[in-house]
Design brief:
Blueprint lengths: L5 H21 L1 H4 L3 H13 L1 H14 L7 H30 L14 H8 L7 H8 L4 H7 L2 H18 L4 H22 L2 H16 L2 H31 L4 H7 L1 H10 L6 H10 L4 H14 L2 H17 L6 H14 L9 H10 L15 H30 L4 H12 L10
Helix pairs in contact: 1-11, 1-20, 3-11, 4-9, 4-10, 5-12, 5-16, 5-17, 5-20, 12-17, 12-20, 13-21, 14-20, 15-16, 16-20, 17-19, 17-20, 18-19
Amino acid sequence: MVVTGSKSLYLQVLAAVIAGVILGHYAPDIAVQMQPLGDAFVRLVRMVIAPIIFLTVVVGIAKLTAGAGVGRIGLKAILYFEALTTIAMLIGLLVGHFLAPGQGMNIDPTKINASAVARYIDPKSHLGVVDFLINIIPDQIVNAFAKGDILPVLFFAVLFGIAMARVGERASALTRVLDEAGKAMFGVVALIMKVAPIGAFGAMAFSIGRYGIGQLSNLVMLMIAFYVTCAVFILVVLALIMAACGLNMYKLLAYMKEEFFIVLGTSSSESALPTLMEKLEAMGCSRPLVGLVVPLGYAFNLDGTSLYFTMAIAYISQALNIPLSLTDWGLILGVLLLTSKGAAAVTGGGFITLAATLGTLSGKIPVEAIVLVFPIDRFMSEARAITNLFGNAVATVFVAWWEGTLDLAQAHRALDGTAAGIMIEKPAE
């Protein structure tokens, strides 16, 4: 689902952030009283985390058996998706660690939310490996949903999705119902995002009022670093994959310039899905393969979002002076491989998944700390969506090449025709 009026929302959030900065700088005593606005928005986001994760994972797994030849193609696509999103997360982690945009902020986590701090300092929250693994299995699934325990919900979702996939065609009706329920849930997110300007104003006003205007420079540094990292990922990592297929990434960028501007304007990669599929077919990718890989990619292949997650978590941990161990990062990467699925479907989805991932760290970093990145989250969404768009285009081309069904001659004609200003028609069925 694409959020309607996203351009207006963009301007509203921008105005709200500026207003929050002004209020926080010139009237800090009043600004800190705006904290409930940001907190309320965070609670709205946390409300929908569990059902969205459940629905997207179940439907994604269940659809893996739909259609002829999907077993082989789907497996290759999933292997590619997981490899590339892992690479993206590692790149984001390295950039966030060495650039350290949140270092020196020295924010006291106890001033973010008292209940989160109680969980943070409670020795019982630090479980051993065995207890941690046992707690992934919910004693009651309804209880896991009620508490918002993400890992038990994920565990049940994976089992349920596999069971539906094994049932096959008999479960198709239920798959469609859950798919529609997922779309409705993203509709709820779209409604929540309508109050994003209010949450952004409250979060920014409180942050600047409490910690000073100096924090803004850290946020700008994080945003610039993220945009540059996304550009490098597209122009280096994705370009190397295209080169392995015998194609030029720079020509693909020109070929998809319309989709680029659509996504830039809407901040949602899904808004360009129909024309993306048409252009991939025109490039020589078969229609059945495009029809399978592209929708799967929109749920499972979120390169830009994956970059954002690890950079944002590194920033938050640095800002709070909470060091994360290799074990912590291993857990984060493992959880993100599941929780990141479906995050690109709507503006704000990455923010939801970030909250879900922090919630799996046993209180080491309070979930409420996402307010530290929320003021600029809306302005990071363009880079996320654009990177996801090109990531899925390259993924489809690569899987077609891996399958041996990519018409390279047609692909070159399409890409060269774009460079020369010539429209290339899709190959006849």
